[in-house]
Write a structure and sequence with these properties.
The chain contains 13 helices and 14 strands. It is α/β, with parallel strands linked by helices. The protein folds into 2 domains: 59 residues, Orthogonal Bundle (DNA polymerase, domain 1), CATH 1.10.150.530; 317 residues, Aldolase class I (TIM Barrel). The protein binds S-adenosyl-L-homocysteine and iron/sulfur cluster (SF4).
Length: 383
Amino acid sequence: MTANLLDFNAEQLADFFVKIGEKPFRAKQLLRWIHQFGEVDFAEMSDLSKGLRKKLSDIVVIEPPRITNHHLATDGTRKWLLSVGAGNGIETVFIPELHRGTLCISSQVGCALACTFCSTGMQGFNRNLTVAEIIGQLWLANKTIKTELAAFSNDRQNLIMTSNCHQPADGDRAISNVVMMGMGEPLANFDNVVAALDLMLDDHAYGLSRRRVTVSTSGLIPAIDRLRERCPVALAVSLHAPNDTLRDQLVPINKKYPIKALLSACQRYLQSAPRDFITFEYVMLEGVNDSVSHARELVELVKETPCKINLIPFNSFSSTRFKRSSSETIRIFRDVLMQSGLIATVRKTRGDDIDAACGQLAGQVRDKTRRTMKKMQKTETIT
Ligand code: SAH
Ligand code: SF4
């Protein structure tokens, strides 16, 4: 198969050039062409010799995933469905705010960890995404938004009036933040996710600061330790419950990596983290994990760990048995946390009219896990 240059971080690109008998510094030029200018045609790369342009076009390609669908929510949130072959599709979400634009990126086709309140987890799992498919989401969103902004730059006011499009100030990046919170568990696809993170941080590619790139994990402890050593970016941990009995039910991987060990991993991570706190995500499920006593238990649990708690109102999807806690319940829960000195915020629900909110991303997953087989066998027995 022809190599895809979107699959390479700076080091791998330099190795590639050495392998084809070229100077390794070509990697920097190529990174800029591919990631900063969004160029896929070697013929346009004017600071490369004609011979090298021809050689590259003979042996490699620059190929992002293909956009198959695009939705714009009433609040300006956008969702792209991208085809990644064999009937599989993944989703990427762009969330515009006044002073920042956040891209939520997928790392796997589905997710094998099967958290019971998560639409992606309920889809099953097909495969890990390649580096090209991960960074390709940023590449595509960046190019699309930049092109639109350039087209409208002469009439900014008109754009503000007629659409909810993000309006970065001059010099601001259209996409200022990346969160690995789309489909999949990023740390279960460690090598590819880290190579993509390298590109996000690389000054010759996207040049984002470590503080503006967040990996969200359900708590794969060995991988949290590896991330700390290899590429410490901001870390969000999906906690969702204040004790192991409840977390075992909501986040099944907790049986393997229980809370106490997870909190120790968070403490270790903080020694190298770009921010001096861990974000704990906590989905608010009515009657399940949202009582005042749960809040008090949570306060006790995290009191030794510098953290911010992000309460996520549950986003519904078909076939779920869970309900979102009421705004009043969420407010009371947050107040208990805050009165004890914790920093707690409630995540604004964005893009839920196009199913782009946290946990609603379903994409198109050809499930390959036994879970689906079991489900099918069960149905067969019943019918
Ligand atoms: N696999 C990673 C990242 C993807 S999920 C993780 O679990 O952290 C991103 C966030 O959305 C996680 O905190 C996840 O628990 C949360 N989430 C999943 N399903 C949700 C739902 N239906 N409503 C609200 N949040 C949800
Ligand atoms: Fe996977 Fe995260 Fe969903 Fe759990 S919440 S099933 S880890 S994507």
